[in-house]
Amino acid sequence: MAEAATKPKADVDFNHIRKQFPVLTQQVNGQTLVYLDNAASSQMPARVADRIHAYHRNEHANVHRGIHTLSQKATDAYELTREKVQKFINAKHKDEIIYTTGTTDSINLVANSFSDRFIDEGDEILLSEIEHHANIVPWQMIAERKGANIRVIPVDDNGDIIWNRFVELLNDNTAILAVGHVSNALGTVHPIKKMITEAHKRSIPVLVDGAQAVPHAPVDVQDLNADFYAFSAHKMCGPTGFGILYGKKKYLDEMPPYRGGGDMIDKVSFEETTYNITPHKFEAGTPPIAAGIGLGETISFLNEIGMENIALYEQKLLDYGTEQLQSIDGIRIIGTAKEKASVLSFVHDDIHATDIGTILDQQGIAIRTGHHCAQPTMRRFNVSATARASLSFYNNEEDIDRFTEGIRKAISIFE
Fold first, then answer.
1. Which of 29, 38, 39, 346 minimizes the number of CB atoms within 10 Å of its CB?
2. CB–CB of 246/97 below 8 Å?
3. What mean pLDDT, rounded, does the chain reach?
4. For residue 217, what pLDDT is reported?
5. R_g of the chain computed on alpha carbons
């Protein structure tokens, strides 16, 4: 049985936790790495890498269907992750946890499979103005195929949704609301529970892109009452190439398979194929087994720290980083929502974001620059790109001090 998430502790030693990430000790351009690109991909603790390595050395075999010992061991470890994920996000049923290759794959699965049953010509798909491309493009493709329409919830100058416009956009033609829990480009935390409640008043199902939420705070899908919830392992200190789609059984059981192949079938003949039950009907072919087992170890690691503790610690870092950035002349933070998570996105009046990122890299400081797969967000705020520092619980105030001092150095170069 998988363990449940831990309660908050007052004695969490985040400096000790930081030491479990070997990558943070390496030298980049002659200086110790400061890694502030966690919204793109977080780093992996040694124990997760060791668990993946142990699978490859001692347990490797294909999962499911095999009767030999190695296959059964691999299957047990792989399926244990499903139980851990269920507990981690408090899903009601283990069968509501579908393995995917990541958040993008999860959203594409819903867009394609859900639309086959529940989206018709003239229906509306409702998105927010600050979505990641992964929660825009799949819906545009479906809208074109089905003759549906995309509607967009606007945000204000802080990056918060405009509530009355959101409510006005909900109508009898709305087939689904698809919205990010946390904006990767701004850090805005949407009032997801409140939005879901409002959508459900009209029986509108809701998909939540949780890629930027699950790594930073506790998520309870039953409390949110989300119909679908998607996230990725590699943004929560796990391996790349693995993700989760949570979906309510009432929808999953009605939705047709997204891909065909091995393991998602019941019986196959040239005349007819019948499909496996949920969740396996959505998991065609040999999966990324090692990555799945790695996610299981990641969840154990996060549970030992406690997601509540992570949220509190990261909020302190975000407050400190915001204060330090605001003290630098010429810097303007993009995204100042009241509720934010772990993202500092900014521009300088006279220096392009790419130049700032390049100069920081020369000092061993890793940030992200560009449009962050959120071009509509950039257009909303009338910028072509931002520099983005994104935090994790293995960062500390010294990282932020080096980051802000690096920006000052960049500014001095262009004076």
1. 29
2. yes
3. 95
4. 98
5. 22
Could you give the C-alpha distances from 382 to 355, 371, 376, in angstroms and in order? Answer: 19, 12, 10
Q: Residue 175: which residues within 8 A CB-CB, separation 6 or more?
A: 115, 118, 119, 120, 123, 124, 125, 148, 204
Domain ranges for the chain, please list them.
14-44+306-414, 50-303
pLDDT in tens, 273-307: 988 888 999 999 999 999 999 999 999 999 999 99
Q: Are strands 265-268 and 343-348 parallel, antiparallel or unpaired?
A: unpaired
Q: Tell me which residue has tokens 């992200």.
A: 368
Active site residue 237: no
141-146 long-range contacts (CB < 8 A, ≥24 apart) are: 141/111, 142/111, 142/112, 142/115, 145/115, 146/115, 146/119, 146/120, 146/121
Helix (H) or strand (E) holding 324: helix 307-326
Among residues 149, 160, 158, which one has the least CA distance to residue 192? 160
| C-beta of residue 139 within 8 angstroms of C-beta of residue 150 | yes
Residues comprising the chain, all counted: 415
For β-strands 31-32 and 34-35, DSSP reports them as unpaired
Strands (E), 168-296: 174-180, 206-209, 228-232, 243-247, 265-268, 273-275
User: What CATH fold (topology level) applies to the domain 50-303?
Assistant: Aspartate Aminotransferase; domain 2 (3.40.640)
Tokens of 71: 């296959």
DSSP secondary structure string, 237-271?
A: TS-SS-EEEEE-HHHHTTSPPSS-STTSEEEE-SS
Hey, what are 386's tokens? 């931002």
β-strands 228-232, 206-209 pairing:
parallel
Domain 14-44+306-414: which CATH class?
alpha beta
Token pair listed for 213: 């939420």
Among 80, 150, 152, 373, the active-site one is 373
CA dist 200 and 86 (Å) reads 23
